[in-house]
Amino acid sequence: MSKHTHSCEHCHHQSCARRVPIFSSLDDDELSWVSSLITTKKYSKGELIIMEGSNPESLIIVNKGKVKAFKDTQEGKEQILYIFTEGDFLGEKNLLSQQKATYNVETLEETHICLINKKDFQQLLREYPDISFKIMSELCNRLERLENTIENMGAKKIEARVSSVLLEFLDKYGKHHAKGTLVELPLSREGIASYIGVARETVSRKMSRLQDEGVIRVIGNKKVIILDKEALEREIQ
Amino acid sequence: MSKHTHSCEHCHHQSCARRVPIFSSLDDDELSWVSSLITTKKYSKGELIIMEGSNPESLIIVNKGKVKAFKDTQEGKEQILYIFTEGDFLGEKNLLSQQKATYNVETLEETHICLINKKDFQQLLREYPDISFKIMSELCNRLERLENTIENMGAKKIEARVSSVLLEFLDKYGKHHAKGTLVELPLSREGIASYIGVARETVSRKMSRLQDEGVIRVIGNKKVIILDKEALEREIQ
DNA sequence: CGGGCACTTGATAGTAATCAAGTCCGGTGG
DNA sequence: CCACCGGACTTGATTACTATCAAGTGCCCG
């Protein structure tokens, strides 16, 4: 057994490593070793974790909470690119290519992260090629999501973009509910707007319309019940 | 020396393998071996290489020519996602994740491609981890390009999108010229339009305006001289 | 030289951004 | 506990921009 298995100060990390898809091919001993490499950090809501142009020296894994990755444009707008949640990793660009961060990352709620040092991470990759495969696979998934986003933004009506986001949030954050699926929105109206590239008023209007049509039910600013998932899927086609 | 080094039927492939960034860490012997795994194929302009939903069983490397990767929407529009040129690989999604093709790929001119069988490719990855690193690095680059595209489409004016494309083409296809840089456009106006997500008439108008302002000079339908690169960069900011 | 196709240019209409009030809700302090 | 305050959201009116529709125009190729 690894000498790290019973190291109490790392016990709470192991669950982190165990939950992360990129380490899913490792056995208990290996996970213990990985856990020993991890340090943790906690952030409260609204803190900036990574700043565009900086040079993070570690792989970051989200252990609890949510963060948004976004770019600031000179026109004063904000374009949200990703929302990362439990199990997602980030900062890989700085470790795999030799690049500076190309976007900001900010917490959307209280968030705990795990950090793996650049050298340790690179050693892991060499020792366990399966981790590389997992990462490549995840990078392909991200590419696919971005490709779909581009298709939405370039070739589809705004109705379709709103429906897409709602379905995406439904998949990620939906919970069963009497008449449909209850979704806790990770973003404000303004956040949704800068995620799909429209004005915040437009999001309000489209969501109001969807409510009038009986497709969704809006509960305050942070919750939505999806009553008719198929209708949303029809909007996207 | 590898027994393949003097195998004439593979000589013309070796240059392909040698030119490809993902194999740049291999030595001559290893390259010869890779070359022996490669088969080639030629396409004329306008042929469909990959169809959305199909399941390509090989990694494809562009050896000569250009191809476009695009999605067809139900609204009848086409969204172009990538233009791949000499040295670029594609089809990785089907080999790294277990996914079907999520976009169509069509040649923009006469194109020669190299094919590496799925099993051979996976063996290569296991034997030479550096190839995995190169691929991860390239995937990160693609992510970054898509992230920038999304920023353009979501948060920037159309002027900026046109300027972005022109600068992108300038980087990839520009050649020195008396008064600026001559760029052979890989896409028609309609192609450019579906690359940046606007109507083809809008591309015409914006380019006319840029010509009136003395920033570019349009020569027929397929060439442009960039006279004032800085002006384009200012449009993007 | 003629035909066709891609492109340009102009006119119009539709849609979303912007500007501008309100409204709702949660939190705070009296 | 209630009243007030501020921030986020909704809704309405107007403006600006681009898509669409509709003629031309020019260029390439046979």
* Order of secondary-structure elements of chain A: HHEEEEEEHEEHHHEEHHEEH
Classified by CATH, the class of the largest domain in chain A is Mainly Beta
The residue-averaged pLDDT of chain A reads: 90
- Helical content of chain A (DSSP H or I, runs of 4+): 40-55%
Terminal CA distance of chain A: 53 Å
Q: Indicate the multimeric state.
A: homodimer
- Identify low-pLDDT runs of chain A: 1-11
Give the neighbour order of strands across the main sheet of chain A: 1-8-3-6
Structural class per helix/strand content of chain A? alpha+beta
**Known CATH architecture of the largest domain in chain A:** Sandwich
Task: Please tally the helical runs of chain A, counting DSSP H or I stretches of 4 or more residues.
Answer: 9
Instruction: Please outline the major beta sheet of chain A.
Output: 4 strands, antiparallel
Overall domain count of chain A? 2
Radius of gyration of chain A: 20 Å
Largest interface: A-B, 43 and 43 residues
How many strand units of chain A? 12
Shape of chain A: globular
The CATH superfamily of the largest domain in chain A bears the name Jelly Rolls
Strand content of chain A: 15-25%
By CATH, the topology of the largest domain in chain A is Jelly Rolls
Q: How would you describe this protein?
A:
The structure is a homodimer of 237-residue chains. With 237 residues, chain A is of the alpha+beta class. Chain A folds into two domains: 145 residues, Jelly Rolls; 81 residues, Arc Repressor Mutant, subunit A (Orthogonal Bundle). Helices cover 46% and strands 25% of the residues of chain A. The first copy, chain A, contains nine helices and twelve strands. Chain A has a four-stranded antiparallel β-sheet. Chain A has a four-stranded antiparallel β-sheet with strand order 2-7-4-5. In chain A, a hairpin with a 3-residue loop joins strand 11 and strand 12. The N and C termini of chain A lie far apart (53 Å). At the A-B interface, strand 5, helix 3 and helix 5 of A face strand 5, helix 3 and helix 5 of B. Chain A binds a DNA duplex (30 and 30 nucleotides) through helix 8.
